[in-house]
Each structure stands twice: as structure tokens, then as C-alpha cells.
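Hey L., structure's done. Input below.
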Amino acid sequence: MTILHREDDATIATLTMDAPERLNALSDEMLAALQTTLDDIKSDPEVRAVILRGTGKGFCAGHDLKQMQAGRQAADGGAAYFKDLFDRCATMMQTIQAMPQPVIAQVHGIATAAGCQLVATCDLAIAADETRFGVNGVNIGLFCSTPMVALTRNIGRKAAFEMLTTGRFINTREAQELGLINRAVAADDLDKEARELAQTIASKLPVAVKIGKEAFYAQAQMSTADAYAYAGNVMVDNMLDAATDEGINAFLEKRTPNWD
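Output:
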């Protein structure tokens, strides 16, 4: 059974997690499927934007707890398995932000624990009204330490710490106010809104978006002075690109740029 479907339409790739009976949990199989597919897409010049969504009642419920409990049966109590699991998950999450194409999370139902981490990791997120978000592992005695990494890079520290230590869920209104998602829309409009956002991004000059996405995450880790120095060099490289020259000339001449 295929648990991850890829559908390409023009310059947009849509990835659909399809394990609804497990709320699209990030099982070993789902992590492997996501990693392989993302690796394929990042080197595909035809793809300019990616939509990530799930089937069934929710976007993603985080790690597969039944699978994790089975890992405890190893002689070491699961230590090696758990370390490998979280390393593989971290690699997949970092792949999303390292790939040149922006990735849009199309979220519905619930996004919990590592599922909330996945939303926070994606470059953009649009959610259906009534979606709930949580890093609720603390409710079962497992602090969401790895989801915390992505969450604290999306929202304020106090809000993140409250979510992590209380396990409470937030709704789409609060998620938008905190910066976890870009916006919430009616459930019936979710597909259309995500698609329109992807189309807008896909219409831009790919090299500019690629350069910009890489710079966006790199400068965020730097001091202000270092960030300006780095970003200035990035803009020089961008300006020297022939396609950028064409884009600026087209704007000045009030015509559509010829980027084909």
C-alpha cells in the first residue's frame, strides 16, 4: 500500500500522506517515503513549489507510538532505535528547509507533536478553520523536545513553552496570531487557497526564490551585522544573474519578462 502520493501538475508537486487509520503518523515507513520523495523533488528543476497535505481526519498526529513501543523490545530497551528514529526525522525536517522549492503545509483536523513540528518546519502553512495544533507529548510523559526546535523558531518563547509544558491545543486563530500558520480558511476552500499560493510562488523566477529561501534561513541564525554582510553578498549574486537582469529590464520597459 502506498502511504505517500506525489502528483505533479505543471510546476507544482502535491504530496499527500495517506495513512488515515493512523492519522498520517510519521511512522518509519512514512518518514522513509517523505525523505525519498523530498530528495527527488529538490533536484527536479520542473518543480517550483510543493504542497504537503494528509488524508482522513487529520494532517498528522506525530510519531507512531505503537511502533515506538515495539522498539522498546530491543536488548537496549530501544535506545538505538529511538536515536535513529529521531535522527531520521530531523534529517527529513531539515530537508524541507534546505530544498530550493518552498513547501506549503495544507493542514486540517489536527497537527500534534511531530505533526505540529512538520507544520512549523514547512516554509508556509494554510489551515482549515477548526484545525487544532499541539505539542502534547507531555500529557503522556514524553516532552516534545524535537518538535520544540521547529516550534521555537516559529513562535515566541513563552507561548512555545506554555504549549510544551501544558500540552494544551491551540486553534487556528491563535496559531495565526502566534505565527505558526499564515492563515486559516474555510475547510471547503483549503485546496483552492493552498493551490493559489503555490501558483503565485511558482510564477516567480526560480533562481530568485531558491537564492532567497536559502538566505532566509541562513541569515536568521546570524547576528544583525553578519546577516547584513551575508545578505548583501547574496543580493550581489542575485543581481549578476542574467534572468534577474531580464526581470528588471522588463519592469522598466513595462513588459512581461522572458524567463523561458
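DSSP finds eleven helices and eight strands in the chain. The two ends are 39 Å apart (CA to CA).

-- N.
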